[in-house]
Every structure is written in C-alpha cells, then in structure tokens.
Amino acid sequence: MTLVLFEIVVKSECVDQFKGLLEAELPNTRAYDGCQHVTPFLDEDGRTFVLVEHWDSKEHYEKYMEWRAAPGPGFASLGDLASLIEGDPSIRYFEALEA
C-alpha cells in the first residue's frame, strides 16, 4: 500500500471555490482504480490543504494523475487546479512497512 500526501496552498480568494471542487471531484477520485481512501485536511491558516490518500501502489496513483492531467468534459483537471493555487503542489509517497 502507498500513502500519498498531496499538499497545496490555495489563493485566499479561491478557498471556497477549491472546497467546492473537492466536494465535486473527490467521489471520482475515490472511485478510481486503486484508490482505497482519500481525506482532505485544512491547516489552521485556512489556505493550506493536505489530501491524505491511500492507494494500492504508487503506480496506481501515477496512472490516476495521468488521467487527471488530461482535460475532459465533466471533471476538473490538474490545469483547472493550477489557477487556484500558489506555487507547485508537494507530493510525497510513503510505502507501508510490514511491522
């Protein structure tokens, strides 16, 4: 299992829009092949979001990100996200240990 931490800082004027995007798009993410769980968290600064995601593997997540990168009708792409955030997202991967 792979744990993914996806962190972004949203522009102050776009926080409500981003929250709406999460509400609309997380069901698509959760339904994507290999996704076990996704939970969004908001920092006390009110603009920094971390999505804590569990995936079957890093490869499943990378395939999902390729899908998100391609614009398509009826869903938000990474390009749509780029206009709402400051800087680049931070994406960190962790592999589960047998302990």
TrEMBL record:
<dbReference type="InterPro" id="IPR007138">
    <property type="entry name" value="ABM_dom"/>
</dbReference>
<dbReference type="InterPro" id="IPR011008">
    <property type="entry name" value="Dimeric_a/b-barrel"/>
</dbReference>
<protein>
    <recommendedName>
        <fullName>ABM domain-containing protein</fullName>
    </recommendedName>
</protein>
<dbReference type="Pfam" id="PF03992">
    <property type="entry name" value="ABM"/>
</dbReference>
<feature type="domain" description="ABM">
    <location>
        <begin position="1"/>
        <end position="65"/>
    </location>
</feature>
